[in-house]
């Protein structure tokens, strides 16, 4: 039996970092959010972009992001049913943070390359040139100041 996760509004005793990790933590949530920063997408498009995620896990992660107010799910009365996912204003507020994490990831990868030396640099370069990486589509947005709740 799956344990119900705590709702964000019930996390009063948690520190802010614990709340953040509860909302966007895990292997897939940041990648889902990053892809939705590019615009509205159907489930199948998300599944294709994140090819190694299972359908069950993608469904679960999207539901949690929707419950937490980051993702909006729109169902159209069509046959077959059409469902689209997009970011809410709260989800969109993560753009600058996700961009900063991506910048840090690039910097960190360079640090690892420098530590590994030239002998392994060629292996890393080949990996960098791989085009079909899950969730690695450019959002190319300027870093913005994210509003804080008490500002």
Describe, in plain words, how this protein is organized in 3D.
This protein has seven helices and three strands. The chain has one domain: Arc Repressor Mutant, subunit A, CATH 1.10.10. Helix content is 49%, strand content 9%. Mean pLDDT is 80; it is low at 140-151. The protein has a three-stranded antiparallel sheet with strand order 1-3-2. Strand 2 and strand 3 form a beta hairpin. It starts with 15 loop residues before the first helix and ends in a 23-residue tail after the last helix. The protein is mainly α. This is HTH hxlR-type domain-containing protein. Pfam families: HxlR.
According to CATH, the fold-level topology is Arc Repressor Mutant, subunit A
Annotated CATH architecture: Orthogonal Bundle
**Uncertain regions: pLDDT < 50 for 5+ in a row?**
140-151
What is the count of distinct domains? Answer: 1
- Can you list the strand order of the major beta sheet? 1-3-2
Termini separation comes to: 41 Å
Radius of gyration: 18 Å
Number of helices: 7
Classify the helix fraction into a percent range: 40-55%
The string of secondary-structure elements, in order, is HHEHHEEHHH
- Count the E strands: 3
How much of the polypeptide forms β-strand, as a percent range?
Answer: 5-15%
Give the overall average pLDDT: 80
The largest sheet is: 3 strands, antiparallel
Indicate the structural class: mainly alpha
CATH first level: Mainly Alpha
């Amino acid at each position: 039996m799956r344990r119900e996760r705590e709702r964000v509004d019930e996390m009063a005793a948690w520190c802010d970092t614990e709340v953040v990790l509860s909302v966007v933590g895990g292997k897939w949530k940041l990648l889902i959010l990053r892809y939705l920063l590019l615009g509205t997408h159907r489930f199948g498009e998300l599944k294709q972009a994140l090819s190694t995620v299972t359908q069950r896990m993608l469904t679960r992660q999207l539901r949690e992001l929707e419950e937490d107010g980051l993702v909006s799910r729109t169902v159209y009365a069509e046959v077959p049913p059409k469902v689209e996912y997009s970011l809410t204003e709260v989800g969109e507020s993560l753009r600058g943070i996700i961009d900063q994490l991506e910048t840090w990831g690039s910097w960190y990868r360079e640090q690892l390359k420098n530590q590994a030396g030239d002998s392994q640099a060629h292996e890393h370069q080949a990996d960098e040139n791989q085009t079909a990486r899950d969730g690695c589509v450019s959002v190319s947005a300027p870093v913005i100041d994210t509003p804080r709740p008490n500002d």
